Amino acid sequence: METRVSLRSRLQDNHLNYSWLIYALKLRGVEVDKSTLSSAVNGTISGPRVPKIMEASHFVLDEYEKFMRSITV
C-alpha cells in the first residue's frame, strides 16, 4: 500500500495527473488506460500487470524529477 500512496503523492507533488503519466508510460511501451491506472494506484486490482505498471510509473517519475532538478539549478 505504501507504494501506491507514494505514487499518488509524487504525482501531486509534481503537479502531474494520470493523463500525463499514461502518455509517458505509453512512450515507454506500457499501455494502460485511466481506469486501470487508477485501480492499480488505489489497490482495487491485482495481478501480474500491477507491479509492472507501478514500477514503470515510478521510473517515469524518477526521470521527470531528475530532469526538473537539472534545469532549475
Short structural summary:
This protein has helices spanning 2-13, 18-27, 34-42, 49-72.
Summarize the SSE layout with pairings.
Blueprint: H1 2-13, H2 18-27, H3 34-42, H4 49-72
Helix pairs in contact: 1-4
Please describe what this structure looks like.
The chain is mainly α and 73 residues long. It has 4 helices and no strands. It has one domain (2-72). Helices cover 75% and strands 0% of the residues. Helix 1 (2-13) packs parallel to helix 4 (49-72). The longest helix is centred in the last third of the chain and has 24 residues, at 49-72. The protein is globular. The N and C termini lie far apart (33 Å).
Low-confidence parts: none
How far apart the termini lie comes to 33 Å
Binned, the helix content reads over 70%
How many beta-strand runs? 0
In terms of DSSP E residues, the strand content is under 5%
Average pLDDT works out at 91
How many DSSP helices? 4
Determine the structural class based on helices, strands and strand pairing. mainly alpha
